[in-house]
Design goal:
- By secondary structure, the chain is an alpha/beta fold.
- It has one domain: Metallo-dependent phosphatases (Purple Acid Phosphatase, chain A, domain 2, 4-Layer Sandwich), CATH 3.60.21.
- Helix content is 23%, strand content 24%.
- It contains 7 helices and 14 strands.
- The protein starts with 6 loop residues before the first helix and ends with a strand.
- The structure holds fe (ii) ion (FE2).
Length: 313
């Protein structure tokens, strides 16, 4: 990893880990708007069980499972007038919602896709395991395997999602990725730089410390957040690009791609793909893994590559 933690960041991490350890045992999600009960979750998982049963009866289960491995590589060119010249052509590989233990062999499928793309920086926007509580050490090995494939000009940057535990941060060095836990890093090419900020997950573990990731400093800035819920704060701080995931694009969609369930409270605006807030471009990845059920319908998994180019005025 070519990033170091300052003493101030080490202290902030200590406070964060104690706070997060308490929140993880709470029966509430902690959101910007306040606490929200998790009680509907048992009902939701029962519905998912019925859904899997129905796909087996209807002969759709194998098709849904094979869709999980049909990972698309989606490439996008984004033009920005204020991109520093040295970063013209800079390529970012975006992986989200790996849930790497949800289906066997997904790590190898992702690695095979990554081998086909060229990039300068890989960013991972959270959710590395299937469950949102319990054991996690079994995912360390497949994550390390993937990490070896995503080392590039700049080391990979990762944030935590609502399925991830604060204990994963103890394996940051072994993982070969720099976690951004309400922190920011500068990427430099000569005199030019861009800033990448990353927050803890605001879907279940929002605290005011998430705001420490954002800076009003005048620079080209990218925000990494598990969900779109902090987009307004990033836009207010003049961030240029906001990358998130979490929704899985619905994962189970109607023909045409409309999500049946996306866990969004603000309509379909942030469910998948591009959106805009003021001058900031946002992108919600549908993710390269699955959770809940090992199936996808009408919403293929994705690995995304963004090429940043300087818009000539
Ligand atoms: Fe997820």
């Amino acid at each position: 990893m070519n990033y170091t933690l300052s003493d101030k960041e080490k202290n902030q991490r200590l406070v964060w880990s104690i706070t997060r350890s308490v929140l993880e045992t709470d029966s509430y999600k902690h959101k910007r708007q306040g606490k929200k009960s998790k009680s509907h979750w048992n009902l939701f998982t029962s519905i998912l069980g019925l859904f899997v049963f129905a796909t087996k009866i209807l002969g759709l289960f194998q098709k849904g499972k094979s869709n999980v491995f049909n990972i698309s590589i989606n490439q996008h060119r984004l033009a920005f007038p204020d991109l520093p010249a040295a970063f013209d052509g800079f390529k970012i590989l975006h992986l989200s919602d790996l849930h790497i233990d949800a289906v066997e062999g997904l790590d190898n499928a992702i690695i095979e896709r990554i081998k086909k793309v060229d990039f300068n920086l890989c960013v991972l926007t959270g959710d590395y395991r299937k469950e949102s509580s319990g054991v996690f050490t079994h995912i360390l090995s497949p994550i390390e395997k993937i990490s070896k494939q995503i080392q590039s000009e700049f080391g990979p940057l990762a944030i935590l999602g609502n399925h991830d535990t604060y204990l994963m941060a103890n394996y940051e060095e072994e993982s070969g990725m720099r976690l951004l836990i309400n922190e920011k890093v500068e990427l430099k090419r000569g005199e030019d730089k861009i800033i990448v900020s990353g927050t803890d997950d605001p879907f279940s573990f929002y605290t005011s410390a998430c705001l420490m990731a954002f800076t009003p400093e005048k620079a080209f800035k990218i925000a990494m957040v598990h969900t779109s819920e902090l987009a307004d704060i990033a836009a207010e701080n003049d961030y240029n690009l906001y990358l998130c995931g979490h929704t899985h694009g619905g994962q189970i969609c109607l023909p045409g791609g409309k999500a049946l369930i996306s866990h969004q409270t603000d309509g379909n605006k942030h469910v998948k793909g591009f959106w805009q807030l003021d001058k900031m471009i946002g992108y919600t990845s549908v993710g390269c893994g699955v959770s809940g059920v090992p199936l996808r319908f009408n919403c293929m998994p994705e690995i995304t590559v963004f090429e940043l180019v300087k818009e000539q005025s």
